[in-house]
Amino acid sequence: MKLSIDQLTEIIKEMDLQTFSELIELCSEYSCKEK
Q1: Between residues 32 and 4, the one the model is more confident about
Q2: What is the 3-state secondary structure of 1-35?
Q3: Could you report the per-residue pLDDT of 1-17, keeping only the tens digit for each?
Q4: Neighbours of 15 (CB within 10 A)
Q5: Closest Cα partner for 11 from 32, 29, 34, 1?
Q6: Alpha-carbon torsion 16, 21, 22, 28, what sign?
Q7: Residue 2 CB-half CA count within 13 A
Q8: Distance CA 5, CA 35 (A)
Q9: What is the model's pTM?
Q10: pLDDT of residue 19
Q11: Alpha-carbon distance 7 to 26, whole Å?
Q12: Closest residue by Cα to residue 9 from 1, 24, 18, 20
């Protein structure tokens, strides 16, 4: 699934900071497992 920058911006605007930090946490956990 490819998103345009505009779509990403809209999604981020709609998300609150809590959701965003949880997402980052998930991403960092995932990238740690990748290594």
Answers
A1: 4
A2: CCCCHHHHHHHHHHCCHHHHHHHHHHHHHHHHHHC
A3: 687 989 888 888 887 77
A4: 13
A5: 1
A6: positive
A7: 1
A8: 28
A9: 0.40
A10: 84
A11: 21
A12: 20
